[in-house]
């Protein structure tokens, strides 16, 4: 009988979604969607396009670095321009290829290089090769394919801060070893001082073009939302003042268009779940609160692999009844997980540094206490919501075997 009740309940949920009249195409409000028109970014689009157009003349385009706060359209503009470039290259039958890598989602320089090679059709084991060998394989792959290659390194500052600038140094010098091909880079960063902090040798060989993306103001955000709402929602689905409120809330957070679109999308989802035929201001307020909770999930989801393993170790110790754990206890637990996954174990000093980074993100609390004649130690406590952290960790396929959600 319970089974039938569950089936009835599920049928009702799915039927209600079918009956929903809020969205026309919800995906048009997601970060992955790149619209054909990006208003208020005409200057940046034109400049990037004019630089990359050199590839259509069979010349190597200059490296490009784009700067701007989160949600200012950097990635969307770069993806739009490179997509159009590739379409034109196909028409002209020119060997031009673009590769996109998000450096925040890649734990090491190894994975960044591996992603580039695999995007070009090569194969790289998860671990086991030296960076020198990966670099050799990349050169070999580029030469065998021939043509102009454009590598987009999104959030490039993340990998440089974490692993140093050796990767960038190698990529800036790679054209010296290429004869049948060339490689240009597009770096995307939120750090306006990124270039200034690089080794002078790298700065001199970059030959970069710098493009700054200013924040959107409230009026611009309103216009962006209005354009997107036309293709995302059914006619009349938005109550008066909804778009204004989403734009105003996002403008307070440094003109973040991604935030504005997320607010509008989640507000629509909430309205659908509540069976309302319109998205109202109260739905936007609920969406704002929901998104603030989801920040923990987003932060944990985008952590590098080893940071996730360290956080998973803290979670495991917490679930065994330990209110807090020392860095030594965390390191032991972390070492077990890397051993099980057959990964290289970071040094205890590096693990301690990552714990400090997790502390700065607000996921854990790490404080140094004195143990008398035994010296000082760092005591770590999970302060983010346990279930949210667990859900984010278990969604990483690599961690499935070392994160037990049923404990």
Question: What does this protein structure show overall?
Answer:
With 407 residues, the chain is an alpha/beta fold. It folds into three domains: 42-212, Rossmann fold (3-Layer(aba) Sandwich), CATH 3.40.50; 217-297, Helicase, Ruva Protein, domain 3; 303-399, Winged helix-like DNA-binding domain superfamily/Winged helix DNA-binding domain (Arc Repressor Mutant, subunit A), CATH 1.10.10.10. Helix content is 52%, strand content 12%. It contains 16 helices and eight strands. The strands form two sheets. The protein has a five-stranded parallel beta sheet, with helices on both faces. The chain has a three-stranded antiparallel beta sheet with strand order 6-8-7. Helix 9 (218-232) crosses helix 10 (242-252) and helix 9 (218-232) crosses helix 11. It is globular, with a radius of gyration of 24 Å. The model has no long low-confidence stretch (mean pLDDT 88). Residues 311-393 form the Cdc6 C-terminal domain.
